[in-house]
Write a structure and sequence with these properties.
The protein has two domains: about 5-70, Roll (2,3-Dihydroxybiphenyl 1,2-Dioxygenase, domain 1), CATH 3.10.180; about 90-145, 2,3-Dihydroxybiphenyl 1,2-Dioxygenase, domain 1, CATH 3.10.180.10. Strands 5, 6, 7, 8 and 9 form a five-stranded mixed beta sheet that branches. A four-stranded mixed beta sheet has the order 1-4-3-2, with helices on both faces. It has helices at about 15-25, 40-45, 95-105, and strands spanning about 5-10, 30-35, 50-60, 65-70, 90-95, 110, 115-120, 125-135, 140-145. Helix content is about 20%, strand content about 40%. The chain contains three helices and nine strands; from the N terminus they run E-H-E-H-E-E-E-H-E-E-E-E. A hairpin with a 5-residue loop joins strand 8 (about 125-135) and strand 9 (about 140-145).
């Protein structure tokens, strides 16, 4: 029986660059670092000779983002579009999406479009959202609700 969410994982090309992005650009806390090699990781990942480095970042609310760099076997390129089967994204609630968008654009985040606004049936603004990618092409969504 499922109990709760544990973490979300993204495969990254350079663990140091990715940890820096999530901690310095997005302001998340570094929750831990790992390096795994041997029988356990080979069995879990089903790659003989598997060797990975990892970093966990979080916002202090329980759910963590695990960033995984495959040293062996090495990773291929990210060729998934947002609408491809297997593509995924991680969504964050933010305060003042317009300000967040402006601040993170200045820090180098590339968005696919400026924030979009959604209105309820009465015409009242109910949500703003924007999509961006991390340095490895993993999709991120930033959402402000009203």
């Amino acid at each position: 029986m499922l109990k709760s969410f544990f973490h979300t994982g993204f495969v990254v090309k350079d663990i140091e660059k990715s940890v820096q992005f999530y901690s310095e650009v997005l302001g998340m806390s570094i929750a831990g670092r790992t390096e795994r090699v041997g029988e356990f990781v080979e069995q879990v990942l089903a790659f003989p000779g598997a060797h990975i480095k990892g970093g966990f970042v979080d916002m202090g609310e329980g759910h963590q983002l695990e960033l995984i760099q495959y040293l062996s076997p090495s990773s291929g390129e990210n060729n998934l579009n947002r609408n491809d089967l297997g593509a995924s994204h991680l969504a964050f609630f933010v305060e003042d999406l317009d300000r967040f968008y402006k601040d993170t654009c200045q820090k180098g985040i590339s968005y696919n479009n400026p924030p979009a606004s959604m209105f309820d049936e009465g015409g009242k603004l109910s949500r703003k959202a924007a999509y961006a990618q991390d340095p490895d092409g993993n999709w991120l969504e930033f959402v402000e609700t009203f």
